[in-house]
Amino acid sequence: MRSATIGRVPGAEVAVGLVRAVRAAGLAVPVDRTILLAEALAATGLDDRERVFVAGRAVCCSGPDQFAAYAAGFAAAFGGAKTVGSAPVARLRTLDHDSDGADPLEDRPATVGVPNAALRWSRAEVLRDRDFASLTAEELAEVRWLVDRMRPVGATRRSRRLVRTARVGRHPDLRATARRAVRTGGETVHRAYRRPSVRVRRIVLLLDVSGSMEPYARAYVRFLRAAVSSRAGVEAFVLGTRLTRITRELAGHDPDRAVAAAAARVVDWSGGTRLGDGVRTFNDDWGVRGLARGAVVVVVSDGWDRGDPERLGAEMARLRRVAHRVVWVNPLKATEGYAPTAAGMAAALPHCDGFVEGHSLGALEAVIAALGD
Questions:
Q1: In a domain, 136, yes or no
Q2: Is the same domain home to 212 and 193?
Q3: How many domains does the chain have?
Q4: Could you list the residue range(s) of the whole structural domain that residue 181 is in?
Q5: Same domain, 180 and 297
Q6: Same domain, 183 and 101
Q7: Which residue(s) pair with 355 in the sheet?
Q8: 159 Cβ partners below 8 Å, 6+ apart?
Q9: Could you report the per-residue pLDDT of 3-59, keeping only the tens digit for each?
Q10: In this predicted model, what pLDDT tens digit does every residue of 337-356 receive, in sequence order?
Q11: Residues 364, 252 within the same domain
């Protein structure tokens, strides 16, 4: 979620812009109250306009005689005023994301009467728990903007490579110790040690792009692009009637161009599903040969499969034997009363280390957490 921040205080940019507007309206607000207002907005949140108005008035005003100037500054900052109860409250202006993925806080004209003030009410909290399948085209564009800025990291493992350490360990660094001994007349006064380095595990993402997954695949292909571009060692594949590797296409810096290149490469988008055949192709050509060994493998699918479920179960068991962790992400898991009774899902689930929802932005947090386990 993109929130206005200065340092680590959420809402600080909104506080700075509001104080500028109030000062332009004739109300003197000290610098220390700007900091206090930022902390107050971090505590109250930025979703309720009336609460923000009251919090700002409590911090900026020293008496009732200053209420009118504060209300005028608030209205000037956020564009238009309305009355909530007996208190005049500004109607906040929402700056939506551009369809091209541009940052809505950049290259925008300043609010009227407030130089360099970029104020925005984020709808990320509203969209956080919305099912991807229920989003409108405009909402999906904003979700894509947010997903593009996710940075999955992944689990770590100890490497055989040794690196220098300041602590005493089990691995003496003989060369460094000898160099130090030269400075002390040949006496090994200061000993050096090494320790195993830590490396990030490879991440392999398999996305089902069949017709039943189409509403979710639109959002998840952006998630795959964000993961591939965030770090090395991330591989992306799509599963339909065949397996297609799209890592190279998603590696571009421009999200829209990267996704368009991946879409052009996939010829079975919104078609049928042969999960067993796709996982077998992955195991034969990529996974067992080394790509999945020690990796975190994530399969994003609703589990509906037109192929043989026994084949899918056998290939998932084969994949599990070489992978560090296998996680299945099923958007239908969030449906009330859901049970993994589909033949494909029932066959694959016993061979998975994790089974998480994937229907919304909030559910993506669980997916990212599963990558780090």
A1: no
A2: no
A3: 3
A4: 158-199
A5: no
A6: no
A7: 328
A8: 196, 197, 198, 199
A9: 333 334 456 778 888 888 888 888 888 877 888 888 888 888 877 778 888 888 888
A10: 889 888 889 999 999 999 99
A11: yes
Same domain, 209 and 168: no
How far apart CA 118 and CA 17 sit, in angstroms, is 7
Considering the domain boundaries, does residue 142 fall inside one? no
> SS3 sequence, the chain?
CCCCEECCEECHHHHHHHHHHHHHCCCCCCHHHHHHHHHHHHHHCCCCHHHHHHHHHHHHCCCHHHHHHHHHHHHHHHCCEEEECCEEEECCCCCCCCCCCCCCCCCCCCCCCCCCCCCCCCCHHHHCCCCHHHCCHHHHHHHHHHHHCCCCCCCEEEEEEEEEECCCCCEECHHHHHHHHHHCCCCCCCCCEEEEEEEECCEEEEEECEHHHHHHHHHHHHHHHHHHHHCCCEEEEEECCCEEECHHHHCCCCHHHHHHHHHHHCCCCCECCCHHHHHHHHHHHHHHHHHCCCCEEEEECCCCCCCCHHHHHHHHHHHHHHCCEEEEECHHHHCCCCCCCCHHHHHHHHHCCEEECCCCHHHHHHHHHHHCC
| 358 and 242 co-located in one domain | yes
The answer to whether 298 and 203 are in contact (CB under 8 A) is: yes
Whether residue 9 contacts residue 39, with contact meaning beta carbons closer than 8 Å, is answered with yes
Domain presence at residue 135:
no
Residue type, 14: V
Q: Among residues 106, 152, 150, 360, which one has the least CA distance to residue 255? A: 150
Last residue of a domain, one of 199, 224, 250: 199
Geometric angle at alpha carbon 144, from 138 and 148, rounded to 5°: 155
Backbone angles phi, psi at 67, to 5 degrees: -60, -40
d(CA 154, CA 165): 24
Residues 165 and 208 in one domain: no
Q: Is residue 169 assigned to a domain?
A: yes
d(CA 82, CA 90): 6
Give the CATH number, domain containing residue 255. Answer: 3.40.50.410
Same domain as 323, residue 234: yes
Q: Are 180 and 136 in contact (CB under 8 A)?
A: no
pTM: 0.64
pLDDT per position as a tens digit, 82-112: 332 333 333 333 333 333 444 333 333 333 3
